[in-house]
Design goal:
TIM Barrel, 2 domains, eight-stranded mixed beta sheet, 10 helices, 10 strands, globular, binds adenosine monophosphate, binds manganese (II) ion
Length: 301
């Protein structure tokens, strides 16, 4: 099990994973299966961060309690900012907070409309039945995303795996892409902070932002009340880890880490397998009592 001294501020790096998905959004494991896998792999603190939905938190929290895992309520909110899609992770949110609950419901309704548009785009190139096909991969029909289309397309033999389907069909400029307006950055941060949570920019390396645009984003994010940036995540190269850790330090932002696990063989890092944060970073959990209490109680140092 990974237990290493982290940084100069007396924070110990736990086996901590603050970004992953269940069948409530586009993950392959139910919340119960996900937490069981995390426990099996030595995770000590876990946040479930489904896209635009918090319906899995209660189940995950219950199993986490039984497995002696410190559980953090999370969500990953889809946002439009300057014509781009960004993901904002909310950690320590209150799942009962009405503006958050209503806001996420509105985003999911938008996802259903976008799914119809994606299916219409795919039909134009002769791929029919993709809406029903994608929904067949959705757990409870609450939330549909591109990953569900991707799994349908793989099943139908249009590409060998999910990654290749995205490249060929589902990203901007490809035939199965449908542009979509998500919620505003200010909404997502407002709901997260209003519910007592901490807002974190998910996988910043995935947005391909130039230096100045990144600076603008970090400034605006902070001005709106955002406090964290994900540094260690499946989609970051070691250079990106260093790069965003440096930005976090320059901008006085807390850093987070999460596998962005969607299922076995669908993410670079599995649960409980993350490398440590770079030295000198202040972790997003530095002042979370529940994490430090459980570390003291369970620690084998
Ligand atoms: P959506 O929010 O429905 O637009 O879908 C975004 C999700 O699609 C991400 O959270 C990933 O799970 C998945 N995804 C996006 N881009 C890729 C890619 N290039 N390869 C594999 N999965 C991807
Ligand atoms: Mn996803
Ligand atoms: Mn994401
Ligand atoms: Mn994610």
């Amino acid at each position: 099990m990974m237990r290493v001294l982290l940084c100069a501020n007396n924070c110990f790096m736990l086996n901590i994973d603050l970004h992953c998905h269940s069948t409530i959004s586009d993950g392959l494991l139910t919340p119960t299966q996900l937490v069981e896998r995390a426990a099996m792999r030595g995770v000590e603190t876990l946040a479930l961060t489904d896209h635009d939905d918090i319906a899995g938190l209660a189940e995950a929290r219950k199993i986490a309690g039984a497995k002696n895992i410190t559980f953090i309520n999370g969500v990953e909110i889809s946002v439009s900012w300057r014509g781009r899609t960004l993901h904002i992770v909310g950690l320590g949110i209150d799942p009962e907070y009405t503006p958050l609950v209503a806001g996420l419901a509105a985003i999911r309704a938008g996802r259903s409309r976008r799914a119809e548009n994606i299916a219409a785009e795919l039909a134009k190139i002769g791929i029919h039945g993709s809406l029903e096909g994608a929904y067949a991969h959705v757990g409870e029909r609450r939330l549909i995303g591109r990953t569900h289309f991707a799994r349908f397309l793989v099943e139908q033999g249009y590409a060998k795996d999910v990654k290749s389907v995205f490249k060929k069909y589902l990203i901007k400029g490809k035939p199965g892409y449908a542009a979509h307006e998500w919620t505003a950055l200010s909404d997502a941060i407002g709901w997260i902070c209003g519910s007592g949570g901490r807002a974190v920019i998910a996988h910043p390396g995935r947005y391909d932002l130039g230096k100045n645009v990144l600076k603008d984003l970090l400034n605006e994010f902070r001005a709106l009340g955002g406090t964290g940036i994900e540094v260690v995540t499946s989609s970051h190269t070691p250079d990106q880890v260093k790069h965003f850790a440096q930005h976090a330090q320059n901008m006085d932002l807390l850093v987070s880490c999460g596998s962005d696990f969607h299922g076995p063989n669908e993410s670079y890092y599995d649960l409980g397998q993350l490398p440590e944060l770079p030295l000198g970073c202040t972790p997003v959990w530095h002042d979370w009592a529940e994490v430090h209490q459980s570390n003291t109680t369970n620690s084998t140092y």
